[in-house]
């Protein structure tokens, strides 16, 4: 049996992870045919796959739907690693979810901070300590204060350093100073940008890769962008990329990316679960322009 360190090293071979959307049909049911096609596209681009994150509308799915999605994708046996999100506010429920994930053929977990409660350093440490102690695979902690309403303190990483399955951090605060504080707190931790547009800047600061929304619509192009960002080549590309990315975040994610994937023909319908609604994005001109721009890359 491979150690957590060996497993983490294997995961680090994947600098791009796609926070996969959850496709629905017009009757609000999970569209498994489309899901299989989306997985195949990510495999072709050699991107890691993250299921049930905020881009995947994970908290809008029932527990039965969440389980079925994980089981379905695992049964496909994709030739890229699978990461599954853990998120919510009820610790007992999240521990049960981790136990379920332990029974599946997944490669990593994304551990979100508890939403709404806004715990301090001690509470955050206890939350992640419990999840890490239960998980049997490498884990990426997720700092996204814009969604969870709490910023993970750098001291929390120091407090958790004894867990050998603490593999990485997804940093989505949008603040390079915070990124640097995390690096100082636990220098051995792999840090991934959680912001598509900021990847070039995080790469210069030592990021290991990107957890991406854009890779849903542009799997191969996003992989090439990450490769260039990490190698420091083609800096003139970064402004073009940022301009295109802004169209994907004009309103709440994943409204724009699902709309774009529908326009591309990747999704039969861009259906969303409430409270998200397409009524917040009625002008698609920016998405069309971004798509033409990115797909024109050589």
Automatic annotation (TrEMBL):
Enzyme class: lyase
CC terms in the record's Gene Ontology section: cytosol
Residues annotated to bind pyruvate: 55, 211
EC numbers for this chain: 4.3.3.7
Name of one Pfam family that matches: DHDPS
Keyword Amino-acid biosynthesis listed: yes
Protein localization: Cytoplasm
Catalytically driven reaction(s): L-aspartate 4-semialdehyde + pyruvate = (2S,4S)-4-hydroxy-2,3,4,5-tetrahydrodipicolinate + H2O + H(+)
GO terms assigned for molecular function: 4-hydroxy-tetrahydrodipicolinate synthase activity
SMART domains xrefs: DHDPS
Catalytic center residues: 142 (proton donor/acceptor), 170 (schiff-base intermediate with substrate)
Residues carrying the site annotation Part of a proton relay during catalysis: 54, 116
Family matches, as InterPro entries: Aldolase_TIM, DapA, DapA-like, Schiff_base-form_aldolases_AS, Schiff_base-form_aldolases_CS
Keyword rRNA-binding annotated: no
GO biological process, one term: lysine biosynthetic process via diaminopimelate
Keywords: Amino-acid biosynthesis, Cytoplasm, Diaminopimelate biosynthesis, Lyase, Lysine biosynthesis, Schiff base
Family: Belongs to the DapA family.
Subunit description: Homotetramer; dimer of dimers.
Protein's recorded name: 4-hydroxy-tetrahydrodipicolinate synthase
Taxonomic source organism: Pseudoalteromonas rubra
């Amino acid at each position: 049996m491979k150690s957590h360190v060996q497993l983490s090293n294997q995961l680090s071979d994947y600098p791009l992870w796609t926070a996969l959307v959850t496709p629905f049909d017009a009757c609000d049911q999970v569209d498994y045919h489309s899901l299989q096609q989306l997985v195949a596209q990510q495999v072709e681009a050699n991107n890691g796959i993250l299921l049930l994150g905020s881009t995947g509308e994970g908290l809008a799915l029932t527990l039965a739907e969440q389980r079925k999605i994980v089981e379905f994708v695992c049964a496909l046996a994709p030739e890229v690693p699978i990461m599954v999100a853990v998120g919510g506010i009820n610790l007992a429920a999240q521990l049960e979810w981790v136990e379920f994930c332990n029974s599946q053929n997944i490669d990593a977990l994304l551990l979100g901070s508890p939403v709404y409660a806004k715990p301090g350093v001690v509470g955050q440490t206890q939350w992640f300590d419990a999840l890490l102690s239960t998980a049997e695979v490498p884990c990426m902690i997720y700092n996204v204060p814009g969604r969870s309403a709490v910023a993970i303190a750098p001291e929390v990483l120091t407090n958790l350093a004894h867990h050998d399955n603490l593999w990485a951090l997804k940093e989505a605060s949008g603040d390079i100073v915070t990124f640097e504080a995390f690096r100082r707190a636990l220098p051995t931790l792999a840090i991934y940008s959680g912001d598509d547009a900021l990847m070039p800047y995080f790469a210069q600061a030592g990021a290991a890769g990107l957890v991406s929304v854009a890779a849903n619509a542009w799997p191969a192009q996003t992989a090439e962008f990450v490769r260039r960002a990490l190698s420091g080549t083609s800096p003139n590309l970064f402004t073009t990329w940022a301009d295109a990315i802004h169209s994907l975040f004009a309103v709440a994610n994943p409204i724009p990316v699902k709309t774009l994937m529908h326009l591309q023909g990747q999704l039969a319908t861009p259906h969303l679960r409430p409270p998200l609604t397409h009524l917040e994005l009625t002008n698609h001109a920016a998405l069309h322009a971004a798509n033409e721009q990115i797909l024109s890359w050589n």
